[in-house]
Amino acid sequence: MIPLHQPFISGNEIKYIEEVIKSRNLSGNGKFTNLCHQFLQQEFNFDYVKLTDSCTAALDMVSILLNISPGDEVIVPSYTYITSANPFVLKGAKIVYADSLSDNPNIDPAQLPKLFTEKTKVIVVMHYGGIACEMDEIMEIANSHNIYVVEDAAHSLGATYKNRFLGSIGHFGAFSFHTTKNVTSGHGGLLVINDEQFYERAEIIWEKGTNRKMFLDGEVNKYEWYDVGLSFYPSEITAAFLWAQLQNLLMINAERLKSWDYYYEVLKNIPQIKLLEVKDYSLHNAHLFCLKTPNREKRNILICELKNNGIMATFHYLPLHLSPYAKTENTIKLKEAEDWADSLVRIPLYYDIRTEDQDFIIQKIKSIVQNW
Ligand SMILES: *Cc1c(COP(=O)(O)O)cnc(C)c1O
C-alpha cells in the first residue's frame, strides 16, 4: 500500500537523544529546546516562541492567556480539526462556527461581520494545507472590533502570506509536530506570540504557573506559585528529536513542493476534478495534496478504487457544527464546509514519495474519473 503520509527521519534523532541521556538533563527547557527556539525565531521571524507538547496544548495556553471564560464567544471554522475549538470550549466559551470559501476550505472572511456579537473575543483561522487564509481582510475586521486572531497553523510551518510567515500575523500562532506534519517529534507543538503584552505571563503559564524563569535568571531567590498554569513544555528527549528534524525543514519543504507541483501540473488538466486555488501571494509548504470530487458518492468511489489499487487516499475533516458534541445546539447549514467534507480527497504526499508511485497514482485517478 502506498501510504497517505510517512514521517521524515533524518538519522540524527538517536544521536541527539543519546546526547540528552548522557547529559542526564532530561526534563525539558534545556539545550535542545533552546536550539529549536532559536532556529524558529531566526528562520521565520517569530518574536516569541515556546515549544509545547502539542498544537492542542499551544492553543490551550492561548485560551489561558486570553482569560477565556463562560460567556465569551469564539469564532472557529467548521472545516477544521477539533483542536481549533476544544481549548476554548474547555474554558466555557461558546463556539460560533464559520463557513469555508468555495475555492479552498479556508474561512470565508466576508461572513465574519455577521457572526460578531459584543461577546466575540477570538477568531480562530486555520490555513488548510499551508495555504494562507485572507489574513489582511481578517486582521482588518478583527482589529476594528478589538477581537484577537489565533492562527491554527498546524499545517503551515514555513508557508507565507504576502512574504510574512504564517503564525506571525495574528496575535497568536499554533503549530503541530504531530507525526502527520512536515516535521515531527511524534507529538509536539509550538506557540508563537506576536503581541508583547502576553510574553511575561506566557513564561509563567508555560512553567506550571510558577516564576521559575525569574528564578533561573537570578531575579528572585526562590520560585513560587504565581498564576494558573500547566506543564506545557516537552522533555529534552522530544526537543532533541525535533531538532534533528528542524535542521532539515527547509529541504523537506522544498522536496515536498516538488512532489506537490508534479501532481498539480498533471491533475489540474482533468476536468472531472478540481484542485485548490492557491493565490500568487500564498507560498504554501506542500503539507498535503487534495482534490475536489463532484459529490460524496464519487468521492467514495475514488477512495475505494484507489485503495483497491494499493493507494491510500482519504477524505478529511467532518464539519464541527454537525458533530455529535456540537449538534445539540447547532442546526445551522454551512454549505461550503459541508461540501468540502463530502467532496475532498487527499492523496499520498510525503518527503520521499517516489516519482513512479506518483505516476501510478495519477494514472489510476485518470482512469477512475474517466467513467464519471
Ligand atoms: C494536526 C492538527 C492539530 C493538532 O495537533 P496536535 O499537535 O496533535 O495537537 C490541530 N489543528 C490542525 C488543523 C491539525 O491539522
From TrEMBL:
InterPro entries the record matches: DegT/StrS_aminotransferase (IPR000653), PyrdxlP-dep_Trfase (IPR015424), PyrdxlP-dep_Trfase_major (IPR015421), PyrdxlP-dep_Trfase_small (IPR015422), WecE-like (IPR012749)
Enzyme class, first EC level, given as a word: transferase
This protein's UniProt keywords: Aminotransferase, Pyridoxal phosphate, Transferase
Keyword tRNA-binding: no
Enzyme Commission no: 2.6.1.59
GO terms for MF: dTDP-4-amino-4,6-dideoxygalactose transaminase activity; pyridoxal phosphate binding
Domain of life: Bacteria
Name the record gives this protein: dTDP-4-amino-4,6-dideoxygalactose transaminase
Organism: Aequorivita ciconiae
